[in-house]
Amino acid sequence: MVAAPTTPARLSLDRARIAELTAREEKRLNEQTPMSGEMYRRARRSMVGGVPSSYQVREPWPIYLAEGRGSTVWDVDGNQMVDFHNGFGSMVQGHAHPAIVQAVQERVAKGTHFAAPVEDAIAVSEELARRFGLPFWRYVNSGTEATMDAIRIARAQTGRETIVKIFGSYHGHHDYVMVSISVPYENIGAADDLASLPYGAGIPKAASDLTVAVPFNDAPAMERRIERLVKEGRPPACVIMEPAMMNLGVVLPEPGYLEAVREITHKHGVLLIFDEVKTGLCVAPGGATEKFGVTPDLVTLAKALGGGLPSGAIGGTEEAMAPVASGRVYQVGTYNGNPLTMAAARASLEQVLTPEAYAHLNALNDRLIAGCDRVLAETGLPGYTVGISSKGCVTFSPEKIVDYASFMATQDPELPHLAWLYMMNRGVFMTPGREEEWTLSVAHSLEDCDRYVAVFAELARDLVA
Ligand SMILES: Cc1ncc(COP(=O)(O)O)c(C=O)c1O
Description:
Blueprint: H1 15-32, H2 34-43, E1 65-69, E2 72-75, E3 80-83, H3 86-89, H4 98-108, H5 119-132, E4 136-140, H6 143-158, E5 162-166, H7 205-208, E6 211-214, H8 219-231, E7 236-241, H9 257-267, E8 271-275, H10 287-292, E9 298-301, E10 312-316, H11 322-325, H12 339-352, H13 355-379, E11 384-388, E12 391-395, H14 404-410, H15 415-425, E13 428-429, E14 438-439, H16 446-464
Parallel strand pairs: 3-13, 5-6, 5-7, 7-8, 8-9
Antiparallel strand pairs: 1-2, 2-3, 4-10, 9-10, 11-12, 12-14
Helix pairs in contact: 1-15, 4-12, 5-12, 13-16, 15-16
The structure holds pyridoxal-5'-phosphate.
């Protein structure tokens, strides 16, 4: 789980050296990716910014991919890389897994969409119910749709409008959750009075005002805020949170935190939504819900559920799902439970994400964490590792990060980008951004992990040289 931080920072980082290495590595990546550059010049004439999603933007151009098989991807220049990005954590099955390819091939020939239920959707619900201990399921097509619908269900179930989220957490791109994310350190505010700030333009203040943020890993602060909301006459419908935060690198819940949140939410009649879009199916067969032994009222899944096809799901208790069952909440969507997606999800759950697969993922992560720990210890680079099954990261901070404020206060702002460049230039396709983590797949090998560690060692050596 959380390795001990190396305290105090034994290395005062040489900023000029970081700048010099960053410039060198940027140049190398650009020289290695001329076809991506050419594709970008074509793409930006018809696709805004040359990309389908703003999360794919990169200066001077994005890296366009061509193919993926197992743990390997190739970009359009033919650069071969081991994939630790895995589609922002969606491809825990590895690319083009034979079981999923077969299921999709068989399904595609039999018709891909009816907007009528198919048997695969029943099988997927049965398996998810077994894994997550939540009896009732519905489908959507993305993580955003899953959290949007879960919040609506909670509002209908409780008759309340305000929602509570964790400060700094990302839950997709609908208005109610695009609040209090990526806030500059000086604008965060006190733990009991965190700001409700819209993330980007186009979000009505009326929507962001209904979302109240509290710090992660601080159950007393959550309870105080809920009590204040009750006093103000706007008790919350739900707390929506990731049980382990996956957009500050990886931040695990402190012992007892999730149990306390469960108790507080029960006590105040607030529904607890675990957003397991990233953790679900990636950290254990039954996600973080199983891993930490705390069952929410509603859980949201997406990403890894569809084995690479757009997917999403909401699971819940009978009571939480009652507004959907009664028809009071219209939980709808033309592509919900799409046959192709359900065929892929079923094959993934039944044939790929087996108990042996999770044992393999755990062994891989142990190897990666141990290797990175060794590098940190040998070089004195300030940082520590965090890992949970297929997910993990090196956190470039001399102190342990427990929430968004400590992340912004202590995470090195420059090293994540430099580390990304080193990886990309040396055959490791890595998630960009200071808040991201790696995701391993069942197709990864111990050698793949050693490759990551070797590149990390080169970075660390160059930094301390
Ligand atoms: C925890 C969490 N919830 C929801 C979402 C939104 O998912 P999607 O991008 O599929 O809409 C994300 C996306 O990264 C996420 O990390």
